[in-house]
Amino acid sequence: MKRIKMIDVARAAGVSAMTVSRALKRDGRISPETRRLILQKVDELGYVPDRLAGSFSSQKSGFVSVLVPSLNNPHFAETASGLQEILNPAGLQLLLGYTGYSAAQAEYLIEMMLERRPEALIVTYDSHTPKARKLLEQSGIPVVEIWEMPQHPIQHVVGFSNRKASAEMTAHLITSGRRNIAYIGECDDSGTRGAERRKGFRDAMRRAGLDPSRQVALAAPPINMMQGREALRTILERWPETDAIMCVSDPAAFGALTECRALGRRVPEDIAVAGFGDFEISRCSIPPISTIVVDALDIGRQTGQLVLRLLSEKTEQSVYLPIAARPEIRQSSG
Which 3 state secondary structure label does DSSP give 216? Predict the structure, then answer.
């Protein structure tokens, strides 16, 4: 958690701190060669200029940065609500950043957020670029990754294994007698939680000695309902014997269920449909959709409580808080 300072960059470049400051301000008195060297060291060390330096250096920023991949996903709205419920009474405000499921955009936002010196940084996990990871590791503030249990956490985690949860739902479909199970996922999703769900599907199918190759990915995250419908048509054209569908999310599952009904396929008699996330639409659809239940509000609350604890204790010991993610089997659909 050691924060990289301007003097560290100066030592690495063999110049004074004032020269580093001038280079970052693009002062004309610095030669292009020296500026290139300094900027190279800035990038290597993961240094972020402190915009609150000078007369404001002794003050707290009073906000916690939160990066979410989507603004219209109710999961992240509920997570933010849980965070606000805990942090606001402690005098902390949320500063939200929207990544759009883009690792490059996340890297940019992390750097921009750190320039403003938040009290803590909360990141919805969808992997990190090497630069983003270095920035987080050298931030000098509490960093909490949420909505996943990453294999190599940066500091602290509040989440669950998307891979394991997806495997459990797929295993339920297998136990119910389904053998020709297909998967509707997303493309261009390397490192995302959706990719972990696809791995969970493969895990369960292989453990049961079944073919995991029935997979369709038509769109980058987040897949929507219409794309779920299109994916279902593609699956039945390629594998007409399909008797169950595991989906990366509930919206995709709702699209698949709707297309089944449009094609005259009975759910669950002909094709079982399962989703992920327990969105409201999965409970309101007819028939309702079996899904993985995750308490998004609880993720926000527990993360907020962890942030307050970290800010008060100043601990460097990593904290991992597991969140329950359990299949909810609604027999009418699965």
Answer: strand
331's CB contacts (< 8 A; 6+ apart) are 268
CA distance 330 to 176: 12
Q: Quote the pTM value.
A: 0.83
Q: Long-range contact list for 15-21, CB < 8 A, 24+ apart?
A: none
Distance separating alpha carbons of residues 306 and 78, to the nearest angstrom: 17
Q: Rounded CA gap, 319 and 65, in Å?
A: 19
**Distance separating alpha carbons of residues 291 and 282, to the nearest angstrom:** 7
The 3-state DSSP class for residue 306 equals helix
Strand 320-322 versus strand 291-294 pairing type: unpaired
Give residue 332's pLDDT: 46
Q: Is 116 exposed, middle or buried (0-12, 13-18, 19+ CB in 10 A)?
A: middle
| CB 245, CB 215: distance < 8 Å | no
Average pLDDT per block of 10 residues along the chain, 334 residues long: 84 91 80 90 86 52 94 92 96 95 95 93 94 94 96 95 97 96 95 96 98 96 96 98 98 97 96 95 92 95 97 84 85 50
- Do residues 140 and 165 make contact, with C-beta atoms less than 8 angstroms apart? no
User: Quick one: 242 exposed, middle or buried, by C-beta within 10 A (0-12, 13-18, 19+)?
Assistant: buried
The alpha helices in the chain, defined as continuous H runs, are 6-13, 17-24, 32-45, 74-87, 103-115, 130-137, 162-175, 193-207, 225-238, 250-262, 280-284, 296-313
ω into residue 240 within 30 of 0, thus cis?
Answer: no
Amino acid at 222: P
Sign, CA torsion 120/124/127/130: negative
Which amino acid type is present at position 112?
A: M
